[in-house]
Amino acid sequence: MNHQFICAAAALALFPTHALAEETTHRQAGAHVHGKGTLNIAIEGAKVEIELEAPGADIVGFETVAKGDQQKAVLDKAKTQLADALKLFGLPEAAGCKLEKATVEMHADDHDHDEKGEADHKGGDHDHEKADGSQHSEFHATYALECSAPERLTGLSTTYFTTFPGAQSLNVNVATTKGQTQTELTRDKPTLDLTGMM
Ligand SMILES: [Zn+2]
């Protein structure tokens, strides 16, 4: 009986508790990763709602408040490009989709993110003060579309990656009345198949 107890205790001691700590740190630090954005698509009846979240680095190449005429011009151009939903997200013409509303904003991101070195000296502490003066911000765009033949929404093709050279991938969540699916769009694969989802 004693022997069994000792073995159990030894096994617990050997179990690498640091793996858990590491995962916690990683999750806290992974609020946004440059190159990676998120695209949420919800389709219900004739209504299509799209939401895009992307690091400022992906869209304009900087994440601080735009300084000087050049950065302001880059920001204005990006906002215009992001607002042009039907150009950014190519939908089948047969679906007859019209853009009802688009909003685009750039906002500061309070969370730390995955940068080499940062996680090392901060450890697991969630530090809201940025000792190194770094700043991160994200673009948040929402789109409301209405489609006269939503059953013809067989796919989507995005010009996002050619429009914004800093963007590498989009994590895509699609929700329709038939269910939910998750996929990824990349520079090599900028098209989304919606067959079977409508
Ligand atoms: Zn950032």
List strands and helices in order, with pairings.
Blueprint: H1 2-14, H2 18-29, E1 36-44, E2 47-55, H3 56-59, H4 68-83, H5 85-88, E3 89-90, E4 97-109, H6 118-122, E5 136-147, E6 155-158, H7 160-163, E7 169-176, E8 179-186, E9 191-193
Parallel strand pairs: 1-7
Antiparallel strand pairs: 1-2, 2-5, 3-6, 4-5, 6-9, 7-8
The structure holds zinc ion.
Zinc ion (ZN) is lined by residues 32, 34, 55, 57, 63, 113, 136.
Describe what you observe in this structure.
The protein has 198 residues and is an alpha+beta fold. The protein has one domain (2-193). It contains seven helices and nine strands, in the order ααββαααββαββαβββ. The chain has a six-stranded mixed beta sheet with strand order 4-5-2-1-7-8. Strands 3-6-9 form a three-stranded antiparallel beta sheet. The model is unreliable at 5-30 and 115-132 (pLDDT under 50). The structure holds zinc ion.
